[in-house]
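User: Teach me something about this protein's shape.
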Amino acid sequence: MDTEQSLSFNQLKELNDRFDQQLQALDGNQPRAHSFSWKKVLLNVLLGIIALPLPFFLLVRASVFIYNGYQTNGWLALSIGCLATVLLLLLYGAILVYKFGMGKKALKYIFRGVLVLVAAYTFYGVLYYSSLNTKTDEIHTYYRSLHPIMRVALTTVTLADSEVVVTDIQRSPEDYQRMGLSEKEHSLHYMQASGYVHAVDLRTKGRSRWKNWMFEYSFKLLGLSTIRHVGTADHLHVYLPLNK
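Assistant: First, the predicted structure itself:
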């Protein structure tokens, strides 16, 4: 009697099916390679474009909202804007910690770094502005007479557009007479009861139309008010309305 027996067709089919099942089970246990997706890449780029300027925007926009909406002191409003920015950056940090599997200790260092970063940027905006972005040295000396929220807003816009030129900040009634203009009783270029000037004039002459459009609406997005003065003294008047 032969020890070797030929397998029937059904037996071969059964063995083949079992082999396929084993391959599928083995394949299911292996990590699958991530397929490349242009949609995912574009989404990540878009999120990055939004996430990068968002903290700067929030710092000023929240400060203006608190100042005008709740009639608060300017420094208090700016402090709340800083707090909101810190919370946003901490959210960024928490996402990074979760995504890259970093320990909780990393979050502590991120928290300290965020505090230093926001404080340093705010103090920089409040205390310093390049003389290269002011029309004259005299105008530059008036920078710290500008409302602190206005200073941080101006620094933020200048960071995005290095061609910003401040043409006027603080004025007196005599300045209007010297310019051949009628004296304005309620000009926000005067020192206000808040102890600060609430308006600044910025050069628009010699700039392209689309740049001036983006220039104007960047301040509007930050919550400030603008008036475009055209003519021989073409400029953008940006101001922080007084509390009622």
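Now, about its shape. The chain has a mean pLDDT of 87. Residues 35 and 41 are 12 Å apart (CA to CA). If you'd like, I can walk through any region in more detail.
User: That's plenty for now, thanks!
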